[in-house]
Amino acid sequence: MTLFHAIRRHLWLAVLFGIASNLLVLTPTLYLLQVYDRVLPSRSLETLAMLIVFMVIALAMMMAVDMVRTRLLADLGRQLADRLDRLALAAKIDGQARRIAQPGLATLQDVSSLRHFLSGTGLIALLDLPWLLFYLALMFAFHWTLGLIAVFSAVLLGGLTLLNDRLTRERVRLYTGHQRETEQFLAQINRNAEIVVALGMESAMTDAWSARRRIDMDAEAAVTGTSSSNRSISRVLRQWIQVVMMGAGAWLVINQIATGGVMLATTILLGKALAPVEQLLGSWKQLVEVRQAWGRLDALWRRPSAVNRVELPRPAGRLTVEALSFSSGSSGNSRGRLLLRNVQFGLQPGHLLVIVGASASGKSTLLRVLTGLWAPQVGEVRLDGSSIAQWPRERLGALSRLFSSGCRTVCGHGSREHRAQSQSRCARFGIYRTCRTARARSRTDPWFAQWL
């Protein structure tokens, strides 16, 4: 299922409310027509009062519809962000654990950009854009001259929008890429802060980060400058077009082809028709960023989920390792040395295996391969006859100095409500006897107390 299928119900509701809103927005235009063409010639106060009542009711309905549509899209952004945040964070954790470089992977910043777009005016302007054709048809209904002016103005602003896209798309892509690289560089500095301080590299790292930030700000300034210039041009063009429309309407009134109400109504209608185009030009940088983020988030949404895996029974704990070989290149590097070669053994439920070796001999690597974090180049790891990749992560466990807490806290997943179940979890994982032994030894040896 694509990401669009997940939000299409909310989008269809937003489209329906948009239909009502765009029909109600014609109320001021119709009111102006009736006042100029009926009320003023007839001097009827009753007609004017009735028009005012209908006008107030229609504007109140339009306000309610716009509020509901805005609230609907805001709820959509919040609900979608809640689901995508989990997927993006899980994918990031999985990539870090497997040490796989994934430059095209969606990030939490992509989720935030999409949520702001759904909750802001950008999506509303995009949904209102097709109504431009309806407004053009109305102006043709008043007079073909007014319709041609409206079509010319729409083509002119549309061409400016395409030009803006061509000028800013590559710059936005470069800016987004530089920004992501700067964030990753800063995260690396934070992770290795002790090494940076110990080697006296604070000044060098600060200079390197400042250089990257200057590149980011220069790229952002280029995008913002181009978008601002095009937005200013579009604003001036819109004023010129309205002047031309007003002049054409006045010419029709002078020649008694149209009324004064038509002259004013078409000018107002043209402004409402071109408003979505101008809004999109104003938020074009955000639109390009969201379009790129959408592609990454859609790919993340399409990734196979653990829900689609075959449901396996509770494992008995029979582990089989068949001719296992692994090199450091399997974890995401292009090259690497062979760390594991033809490893083969089996463990029955309840049995314990101790692996002893020198530093960097492959002990931690074997642990990561056994738990499915890293995929071997050759061989297979099976639990109860099924490949380790088919088992859900909740059924597997590996602890390598993960937390500074004791065994009970780790087995309880660090949560208060799970601490009561930590003893049963320890028993399930086959380490209850170890905890009991450590508790007994902790009275005489403080080293064992750290595991409790």
From TrEMBL:
<feature type="transmembrane region" description="Helical">
    <location>
        <begin position="48"/>
        <end position="68"/>
    </location>
</feature>
<keyword id="KW-0812">Transmembrane</keyword>
<dbReference type="GO" id="GO:0005524">
    <property type="term" value="F:ATP binding"/>
</dbReference>
<protein>
    <submittedName>
        <fullName>ATP-binding cassette domain-containing protein</fullName>
    </submittedName>
</protein>
<dbReference type="InterPro" id="IPR027417">
    <property type="entry name" value="P-loop_NTPase"/>
</dbReference>
<keyword id="KW-1133">Transmembrane helix</keyword>
<dbReference type="GO" id="GO:0140359">
    <property type="term" value="F:ABC-type transporter activity"/>
</dbReference>
<dbReference type="GO" id="GO:0005886">
    <property type="term" value="C:plasma membrane"/>
</dbReference>
<keyword id="KW-0472">Membrane</keyword>
<keyword id="KW-0547">Nucleotide-binding</keyword>
<feature type="transmembrane region" description="Helical">
    <location>
        <begin position="240"/>
        <end position="270"/>
    </location>
</feature>
<feature type="domain" description="ABC transmembrane type-1">
    <location>
        <begin position="12"/>
        <end position="289"/>
    </location>
</feature>
<dbReference type="InterPro" id="IPR003439">
    <property type="entry name" value="ABC_transporter-like_ATP-bd"/>
</dbReference>
<dbReference type="GO" id="GO:0016887">
    <property type="term" value="F:ATP hydrolysis activity"/>
</dbReference>
<dbReference type="Pfam" id="PF00005">
    <property type="entry name" value="ABC_tran"/>
</dbReference>
<dbReference type="InterPro" id="IPR011527">
    <property type="entry name" value="ABC1_TM_dom"/>
</dbReference>
<feature type="transmembrane region" description="Helical">
    <location>
        <begin position="117"/>
        <end position="138"/>
    </location>
</feature>
<dbReference type="Pfam" id="PF00664">
    <property type="entry name" value="ABC_membrane"/>
</dbReference>
<keyword id="KW-0067">ATP-binding</keyword>
<dbReference type="GO" id="GO:0034040">
    <property type="term" value="F:ATPase-coupled lipid transmembrane transporter activity"/>
</dbReference>
<feature type="transmembrane region" description="Helical">
    <location>
        <begin position="12"/>
        <end position="36"/>
    </location>
</feature>
<dbReference type="InterPro" id="IPR036640">
    <property type="entry name" value="ABC1_TM_sf"/>
</dbReference>
<dbReference type="InterPro" id="IPR039421">
    <property type="entry name" value="Type_1_exporter"/>
</dbReference>
<feature type="transmembrane region" description="Helical">
    <location>
        <begin position="144"/>
        <end position="163"/>
    </location>
</feature>
